[in-house]
Amino acid sequence: xxxxxxxxxxxxxxxxxxxxxxxxxxxxxxxxxxxxxxxxxxxxxxxxxxxxxxxxxxxxxxxxxxxxxxxxxxxxxxxxxxxxxxxxxxxxxxxxxxxxxxxxxxxxxxxxxxxxxxxxxxxxxxxxxxxxxxxxxxxxxxxxxxxxxxxxxxxxxxxxxxxxxxxxxxxxxxxxxxxxxxxxxxxxxxxxxxxxxxxxxxxxxxxxxxxxxxxxxxxxxxxxxxxxxxxxxxxxxxxxxxxxxxxxxxxx
Length: 252
Ligand SMILES: Nc1ncnc2c1ncn2[C@@H]1O[C@H](COP(=O)(O)OP(=O)(O)OP(=O)(O)O)[C@@H](O)[C@H]1O
What we know:
With 252 residues, this protein is an alpha/beta fold. It contains eight helices and nine strands. Strand 1 (12-21) and strand 2 (24-34) form a beta hairpin.
């Protein structure tokens, strides 16, 4: 199934004047353009504000005064976002098909059952439509979560450590699947995994400093998805790891 978007999704423009929780600064002031149809990976030390930024973009946290989060096509951001988290957030009492169609049901719309079935097939879960989440492995549940994210067919996709809870080979397969199915969307991917960032992202940012601001790091010349064993990917992964170590030392 071709889930890519053509033409690609619009870009997202973020201008954050800084952000604090109860007076404790978390994010510094910065402006960031997420290019349309591209995946931007965001890394940084634990507590540097990655999820905070993601939640702000998603509208789950009130943006501070003076912040601007805008779509490059002038359209709204709210209502055009899909979210995929580390926890699959599947409802245990619904089967796989019910979970994939949940968004439409919650909005009181008639779900597109044929599309849901095609997406379930695309993530390799055909034949498991009637299975409850408890009957699926962790990797299968994340694939189900990916199908549910794609079911929303939103131009903007926010992913918060989407594959961190699964084993390395499963993560590797899920990354390939996500790259194929999310092609053309504007994706902001929070991850702790430098290899994941270098495989999937057009641009890689590290939150550095205190309060933290995103700093761009070099990526291999080839367009993503990139092979994990590619020398350029491994070299970039090493450099990213060093940048993360420096960021962690700065934050300590
Ligand atoms: N609701 C909240 N109220 C107060 N402080 C918060 C709240 N949410 C997060 N924080 C604080 O804001 C800072 C940034 O948290 P955030 O979850 O964005 O970090 P992160 O980079 O995503 O971390 P991790 O990699 O561990 O998930 C942390 O110091 C955290 O304790």
